[in-house]
Amino acid sequence: MEPDNAILVDLDHVTLRFERGVVALNDVSLRIHEGERICILGANGSGKSTLASVLCGLLAPDQGGVSLLGRKVAQDGDVNYDAYEAVRRELGLVFQNPDDQIVTTVVEDDVAFGPENLGMAPEQIETRVRRELKRVAMQSFAKADPTRLSGGQKQRVAIAGALAMGPRVLVLDEPGSSLDVRGRRSIMRVMNRLHAAGTTIVHVTHFMEEALCADRVIVMDHGRIILEGEPQRVFSQGDTIRNLGLEEPFSARLASRLAQLGVPVRWTCSADDLKDQLVNLGKELVVDDLAPAGTRSRLGARDEVPASQSPHATEGRISASGVSYSYAGTNGRQAVGGASFEIAPGTSCALIGQTGSGKSTLLRLICALEKPDAGRLEVNGFDVSKRRERRMLHGQVGYVMQHPERQLFAETVWEDVAFGPTNLGLSVEEVGHRCVSALDLVGLADQESASPFDLSGGQQRLCAIAGVLAMRPRLLILDEPMAGLDPRGRQAIRSILGKIHSLGVTVVQVTHSMEDAALQQQVIVLDQGSVVAQGTPHEVFNARTGQTLHERGLGLPQSLAWAQELAASGLDLGQDPLNLNDLARAIAHQLDPAASSSPRDRGKE
Amino acid sequence: MALRLSIGQYYPAESPIHRLDPRAKVGCALVAMASTFLIRTPLQLALGVALALALVAATRIPVTKVLESIRPLVTILVLLGLFNLFLVRDGETLFACGPLLIGAEGAWSAVLYSLRLAIAILMGALMMLTTTPTQLTDAFDAALSPLARLGLPAHEIAMVFSLMLRFIPTIADEAQAIADAQRTRGGALGEGSPLHRCHAIAAILVALFASSVRHANDLARALDARCYAGGEGRSHWHPAHMRPRDWAAVATCVACIAAILFAGTL
């Protein structure tokens, strides 16, 4: 950041209220210089998106002054509309859902839409469209239909559309929150390139790791700026960050945990810095003290798939052999091709694979919403290829779709949750009983008479999940249950699923988070409709599979990636840790074998 | 997702038809479609079919793709044919079996009515397949522009039309997702008492309505962010110009229609 650069955004004690007295921004002051890369963090409902709208001139505050690109556009509710219109032409916005930002059905036409609105000359539009499509690496999709692209590709089209207008500030409001690993990676690459080329970037995100690339991080809560500064300074306030429902970046958490374990590292949130420190510590050790290489031990007792009470129980079991399915009108291209796997009753299982790998289709088959073209799929002991048995399965298999909150419909939370149990034909008392316990489980007991549409985004998700749990399924299927949630919301879902699983329910979830996948008992990897790997987390994620997973648009859990990078720099841990705690203990053990094996460290992170 | 509307989907290819000025193309297509209903004689029909097939070849779109796009309407064509075949009982009897009777007149009407509707549908499908929604919007914009002088928001109507085309598949996918979600919660559509069915449909509509409102809000934000402010001050990446080849296409179209009409007098 060069502070001498022109000030592009200047907010002076800005306050903004919505209807019903909700204060979205509360006395916010902020200056952004040309060429800066700013990251805004905050829990859902902290005012991040409102701030993003104010920054790109879409919302004017009730109080305080706003100067954009050097022009005063609003002062204490006095709005200069002409000035707003003028500066908006040089401010770009990309937000969460790419579907709602794409207004035409041809990629290049969509990129041209903004420049056309600005009244640019055709030759100039041509140059811009070609340049920006190239910049986001989408030039080979210029004539494609956006609805047929993956989420990451669509979001890149949306970014190209914003860039084609030549913005001096580009605001990205959670651009990666609905994307898979590969999609998020590609968006980060585009942002790095833009930053290097001097574009001023404001990035709103839920992912702390992404904030580490920023020049300056701003943390918001209840419409106020709570923390502001360089990433290293902001993330050193670990307690404040956690209290706001956020989490620190992986390296920061690791550094803190290592310090607790007595490893003499200086706190940092820079991964490179921490790695260097550890490698240097390792070099100080005598080689004889190191554990013999080659005997990679395995950590974690969760590793074994539990033998169910009765091995032949069918309830909660999924067994697939050679299951294939293709959608009508796709010329027989198989969405799922010859998938074979077994999920035992009471297992927690993660299904991973990049967009288009067939995960969602497989879930639809398991939920008996589609009939397999070939192969045998048995769920709860029912054969999914038979129409009658498919009908029996509806109501038995709990299915939480992607963004289940979009399916809420009833007037009250209670009615929505009661929909399923009522359809099962249960007595009124039983329905009531189930609603109470489902709402209790997700923590919405006090909201039962509220309208589901008045809940916050995270609560709506919980309400929709409660509606499925009230059916008391022995088999719960979830499609990206944590997509778009902040760290606290993700943790809430994780703990609910943990409770459900501890009741003996089979829990199968599609996830884009390798960390979450590594927490399950079983992992199934899909690519291009086929099961390409399956087993325990340690079988799926290890030193040998990293490269293959990366090629399939996936990755390794961060702790394992760390262990590998340390090994490459000469600090071999001799094991494959799958979570931060295991990694920290392995490092501590390696650096000081005597001190680290005390039982008091076996606590949770 | 499972449900995909293939009608109204642009198919990119390099052909003279793709390159035509959208106004000329849409205008010719609409006039040609209307004039198929003037076809009465076998000679006219043969000419019409030949013209339609020539057009398919000229667009350089794979035949399977064209067929796929009109498939949903084939049922209507077949039904129309069958109605004519069995219900028009005039003319010489060709076939009789119990109450079933097929007359020469019926057989001819079955062929005539189905084929000429097929020609019209095919021409419409070709128009949609070779024209991007942006071009369609421009064409309708141009067609409506005389009304703009009377105060009608011509450009905005055309824009709404184009956004509708863009969002039909999205909303259809969502309707499907909501119906599936309710099916897995035991609320199947098309089962149970009429009251139960009404409830199921109402539940889907409420959820769909809520999601449409959300789309509309997001879309409004997106249009604002990209400085869309109606047709005024807007430029075009590919401004429409009637070039000689567009005039030639219009002339060819007029000549073909005239030829078919003339063939009717022979």
Main sheet attributes: strand count, strand direction, barrel closure of chain A? 6 strands, mixed
Q: Quickly give the structural class of chain B.
A: mainly alpha
**Helical content of chain B (DSSP H or I, runs of 4+):** over 70%
Shape, per Cα inertia axes of chain A: globular
Average pLDDT level of chain B: 84
Which chain pair has the greatest contact? A-B, 69 and 55 residues
Summed up, the domain count of chain B is 2
**Oligomeric state of shown chains:** heterodimer
Main location (chain B): membrane
InterPro entries (chain B): ABC/ECF_trnsptr_transmembrane
GO cellular component, one term (chain B): plasma membrane
Membrane topology (chain B): Multi-pass membrane protein
Plain-language structure description:
The complex is a heterodimer of chains A (605) and B (266). Chain A is an alpha/beta fold and 605 residues long. Chain A contains 22 helices and 21 strands. Chain A folds into 3 domains: 7-246, Rossmann fold; 252-285 and 559-591, no CATH class; 318-324 and 334-555, Rossmann fold (3-Layer(aba) Sandwich), CATH 3.40.50.300. In chain A, the strands form 4 sheets. Chain A has a 6-stranded mixed beta sheet, with helices on both faces. In chain A, strands 17-18-19-14-20-21 form a 6-stranded mixed beta sheet, sandwiched between helices. The radius of gyration of chain A is 26 Å and the shape is globular. Chain B has 266 residues and is mainly α. Chain B has 2 domains: 16-131, no CATH class; 153-226, no CATH class. Mean pLDDT of chain B is 84; it is low at 1-7. A two-stranded antiparallel ribbon of chain B has the order 1-2. Chains A and B meet through helix 3, helix 4, strand 17 and helix 14 of A and helix 7 and helix 8 of B.
Properties at a glance:
heterodimer, A: 605 residues, alpha/beta, Rossmann fold, 3 domains, six-stranded mixed β-sheet, 36% helix, 20% strand, globular, B: 266 residues, mainly alpha, 2 domains, two-stranded antiparallel sheet, 9 helices, flat, disordered N terminus, transmembrane helix (chain B), ATP binding (chain B)
